[in-house]
């Protein structure tokens, strides 16, 4: 029982620095602080260590160029969330889709429209005989 009360005291004593304790919690912490010397010593060491850590902080000098870069990065990041940033890509993708569908339709239509029914025809060789006079190569005038 004592061990459970000590762990609850340590948890509440750390939370007291971050938030306001309720009435029942603050009564428990006060009563346990009076009854347990070991927890009181642990609390004092913790408070001293946390005070030492908070006293060693220092101020950082930030360059104005750094602030400008951060602001520009925020604008770019928020700009990527807007419709104006992505609209050219969306329009380009829509045009590409229309062109792809049109080309697929053309490909499918050309294969259907040029079909020849070969079952009613047969292959044969036609001989033509030339009945006119032959042209002599010596009669042809050179092109100038």
Describe the protein:
- Helix 1 crosses helix 2.
- 2% of the residues are buried.
- This protein is mostly helical.
- The chain is rod-shaped, with a radius of gyration of 47 Å.
- The longest helix has 31 residues.
- Helices cover 65% and strands 0% of the residues.
Number of distinct helices: 5
User: What oligomeric state do the depicted chains represent?
Assistant: single chain
Strand content: under 5%
Distance between the termini: 122 Å
**What is the number of E strands?**
0
- Category by helix and strand content: mainly alpha
Largest sheet: none
Order of helices and strands: HHHHH
Mean pLDDT: 79
Rg measurement, Å? 47 Å
Poorly predicted segments: none
Q: Give the overall shape.
A: rod-shaped
Helix content: 55-70%
Q: What's the helix and strand layout?
A:
Blueprint: H1 2-15, H2 23-35, H3 37-55, H4 64-80, H5 83-113
Helix pairs in contact: 1-2, 1-3
Give a brief description.
The protein is mostly helical and 144 residues long. It has helices spanning 2-15, 23-35, 37-55, 64-80, 83-113. The longest helix is centred in the C-terminal third of the chain and has 31 residues, at 83-113.
Which features would summarize this protein structure in a list?
single chain; 144 residues; mainly alpha; 65% helix; rod-shaped
